[in-house]
Amino acid sequence: MESVTKHIITVAATLGVLAVGAGLFVYSGIYNSGADSPHWPVTYALMQQTRERSIEHHAKGIALPGNLDDEAVILKGAGQYAAMCTGCHLKPGMKDSEIRPGLYPQPPNLSQVRVDPKDAFWVIKHGLKMSAMPAWGMSHDDATIWSMVAFLQKLPDLTPAQYKDMVAKAPPDEDMDMGEEGGDHHHGSGEADEGGHSDNHGGSEAAASGPVGSAAGDQSHSHDQSAAAESDGHDHAAAAEAPLSLDGLKLKAVPAAEAVAESFHAALQKGDRDAVLALLAPEVTISEGGHTQSRDDYASRHLSEDIAFLKSARIKPVSLASMPMGETAMVGSETLITATLKGKPTTLRSREMLTLKRQGPQWKIMGVRWQSAPAENGHSD
Fold first, then answer.
1. 3-class DSSP state for residue 101?
2. Integer distance in angstroms from the first to the last C-alpha of the chain?
3. Distance from the CA of 134 to the CA of which of 73, 309, 346, 378 falls in 20 to 30 A?
């Protein structure tokens, strides 16, 4: 009995000394916690094994959705990846980034490795402690995270050109706006009229920009002010912009969101400023020709210009469709716009993509993207 007691006292004393020693070590600050000072090999191996087993354990019960091969889901994931992930995980043709060399541990180059979809979902949603991987589930719904997982299954097989094309077709939302920031109203080229407002709707190879109508009636427009820069002080240099894709949208997929889009178009057509602004969320972004403006920027000037233009334009709706994205939805539309410019009728094929979010019983417009180009043969069909 006395021997057992001595062993217990010895073990307790040893543990006490180790605890005091560990406390002194932590308090001293001797340990280098800098990311440029690697762990000891044994420490790194232990942490790596712990992380891998943790991911495998927590991800094993996750059920895969059946739409990971859906093109619309993959395209949404492409846009999310381009906006949030390339700085750390790179993209096809990208060898390094400004932030990546300073990350420890180094994140995987996801353009070269294909990750398990269950593991990928869990890591994207919950993040990883002691790494630079955030928990995107704190700000993104499961549908959005699964879209990224779907895209990751395709990423290692993409060439740089294929990647760029896929990202260009991605539906826009508030996370994916990568255009220039600012309140400039951006348009194609044209000559200003005596009032400093140009209405050349297709006399340039550069795309013009403007609201696009819905299937409800004459509810869209597009206008061009680039040569008015001397009179209004804006930078109206034309910028190349990827075509706005409406692929993946379906008629009446989200009827309530489509109804809001139609109300938005109708309010613009009627010149009802209050109704237009009531449908726009306070944090809405409005993008034209690579330039993005806030709700206040749009309300202070360009909304009035849009309303004025609509009074003289003839609108022919072509299509209106939508896509559900959890608590958000995309509504895209295409319209033919005809106006008399310099005594000649000019027709544009104009597209609009709205991002809407459900807020209680209502849908609010969180993002607006407008784009137009000369219609083929210069007439409405």
1. helix
2. 101
3. 73
Our CA dihedral for 46, 49, 55, 61, rounded to 10 degrees, sits at -120
Kindly write down the DSSP assignment for every residue of 250-272, as one continuous string: BTTSSHHHHHHHHHHHHHHHHT-
Fold match flag (53-168 vs 182-378): no
DSSP conformation class of 300: I
Contact 91, 27 (CB under 8 A): no
The class (CATH top level) of 182-378 is: alpha beta
| Backbone conformation region of residue 378, classed left if phi is above 0, alpha if psi is from -120 to 50, else beta | left
CATH code of 53-168, in short, is 1.10.760.10
CB-neighbour burial class of residue 11 (10 A; exposed 0-12, middle 13-18, buried 19+): exposed
Q: What is the per-residue pLDDT across 19-44, written as a single tens digit (0 to 9) for each?
A: 888 888 788 888 788 888 888 888 88
For residue 324, cis peptide bond before it (omega within 30 degrees of 0): no
Q: Which H helix or E strand runs over 48? A: helix 41-59
pTM of the model: 0.47
Output the six-digit token pair for 331.
Answer: 């509504």
307, 338 Cβ separation under 8 angstroms: no
